[in-house]
């Protein structure tokens, strides 16, 4: 028995009806379906994101991450300062692009309009990840450091970015970074 590619098309979720149905000369267009799942503002989505943030922060508390960052001699504080500086640079670029260029100058925030800012942001994110890894790995080892970094990135940063509007993200990031810098010294 041979497999006919055209007969297996429904497995690829192809439209089963021909494009010119009913004799019309215009090709049929189809409006894409919304993504599956609940909308972003649904209470269950907010509860899920809050649970992920809470669970991640609980795990980081169990690892003693904040205490070790502030007080442990095993943490390389010079690398951590480089990571903080690059994180501040990411915040500054994000604020400039979204608030000044996007809101004040009414420029559409997309890659084509901000290629160099996007590339600088990627560079600063890479610098921060590398420096935070070099900073925390003497205290936690490589595997736990990756868990902490992925946990913070996915479990705190991405989840809060999906929950909080852009203007709130910018205000909250400045306030929290200022508070952390005062604690860190």
Structure explained in plain terms:
The chain is mainly α and 185 residues long. The chain has helices at residues 43-63, 65-71, 77-104, 115-163, 166-184. Helix 1 (43-63) packs across helix 4 and helix 3 (77-104) runs antiparallel to helix 5 (166-184). The chain starts with 42 loop residues before the first helix and ends with a helix.
In short:
This protein has 185 residues and is mostly helical.
Distance separating the two termini: 73 Å
Helix content: 55-70%
Rg value: 23 Å
Number of strands: 0
Report strand %: under 5%
Number of helices: 5
* Class by SSE composition: mainly alpha
Sum up the overall morphology in one term: globular
- Low-confidence blocks of residues: none
Largest sheet: none
Average pLDDT across residues? 85
Order of helices and strands: HHHHH
Throw out a few tags for this protein.
single chain, mainly alpha
Question: What's the SSE blueprint?
Answer:
Elements (H helix, E strand, L loop, with lengths): L42 H21 L1 H7 L5 H28 L10 H49 L2 H19 L1
